[in-house]
Design a protein that fits this description.
Blueprint (H helix, E strand, L loop, with lengths): L9 E3 L2 E3 L11 E5 L3 H4 L11 H9 L12 E3 L5 H4 L26 E4 L3 E8 L5 E7 L21 E4 L7 E7 L6 E11 L4 E12 L14 H11 L24 E2 L27 H8 L2
């Protein structure tokens, strides 16, 4: 049972016309800060969505799958993730439609985080549900160019949050990145809903460093016209500064404790992701049809 609607029983000319046009499910969500692979290669991915790795991911999956970035969900898992989701197919949730998210490539864009720092993880949600979030980090020695297996993940999540309240189209999950880690890793997010049978999966590529090794973000570069446009976008009412981030091969974050991931745009990198999320996000349940059309055009 998905989150759809069905129209039945419209009387026309004395007869009964059955409109069996069940609207497609318009939920649901994915980790957006740091951005998951589905978000990076989806409609909000900008230039990064047109990168070589995203093109390959689109070709490996079902046609139109990148536009359904929020629909990596499996029904009936009921906490048995390691039984139901096969090794090597964790990022796609085992779904053939999203097989491209499992591609073993070294060029997945990664967001730089500080090992041991406090972070406000942001989960983009199209239709809120009750349920719990579990965030896992890959073990030391994980090969970022390989397929993610359950044995690559720590046995226990580093962050668990039950029944958070969605605000402005996001769940905010406050936690701390595991300390003493470095290099490329994956954050694997499991959202197990309790008011539907569905569980959602997300893979986010990150590059971890310590306070002594992570450098401050570079100053913005580019032409005066480009810088003027960026300043105007940053000052636009309703913009969410926590999601004016970027994801490239490796993108540094500003060194600000106790905040969300905030990156400074750098036009010198060819593969940047600007997550400008619909004027600060969407926080509605009733207007799902319009939103679905907007994201699936």
């Amino acid at each position: 049972m998905g989150c759809g609607h069905r129209l039945v029983g419209a009387a026309v000319g004395g007869g009964l016309l059955v409109l069996s046009s069940a609207l497609p499910a318009q939920a649901h969500g994915a980790l957006a800060n740091p951005p998951s692979r589905a978000v990076v290669c989806g409609p909000e991915g900008g230039r990064t969505a047109r990168s070589a790795v995203c093109r390959a991911a689109a070709a490996a999956g079902e046609r139109g799958a990148p536009a359904r970035w929020d629909d990596i969900r499996v029904a009936g898992v009921e906490g048995r993730d390691r039984e139901k989701i096969p090794d090597g197919r964790l990022c796609s949730g085992g779904l053939a439609s999203f097989a491209g998210l499992d591609l073993p490539r070294a060029d997945w864009p990664a967001t730089r985080l500080r090992s041991g720092s406090r972070i406000s993880f942001r989960y983009r949600v199209m239709i809120p549900h009750r349920g719990s979030f579990r965030l896992y980090l890959t073990r030391d020695g994980f090969d970022p160019a390989g397929r993610l297996r359950w044995s690559d993940l720590a046995a226990r999540p580093f962050l668990t949050v039950a029944d958070p309240v969605a605000a402005n189209g996001f769940y905010t999950l406050n936690g701390r990145v595991p300390a003493g880690r470095s290099g490329r890793h994956l954050i694997y997010t499991v959202w197990q809903t309790s008011d539907t049978p569905d569980t959602y999966y997300s893979c986010a590529d990150v590059d971890l460093g310590t306070r002594s090794t992570v450098q401050a973000a570079p100053r913005p570069t580019g032409t005066p016209a480009i810088r003027k446009k960026r300043r105007a976008a940053a000052a636009e009412p309703g913009k969410d500064p926590q999601l004016s981030g970027q994801a490239g091969p490796v993108v540094p974050n500003t060194d600000v404790p106790n905040t969300g991931v905030q990156n400074t745009p750098d036009s010198g990198s060819p593969e940047l992701l600007y997550l400008t999320v619909l004027g600060g996000g969407v926080a509605v349940v009733g207007a799902t049809v319009g939103l679905g059309r907007r994201f699936r055009r």
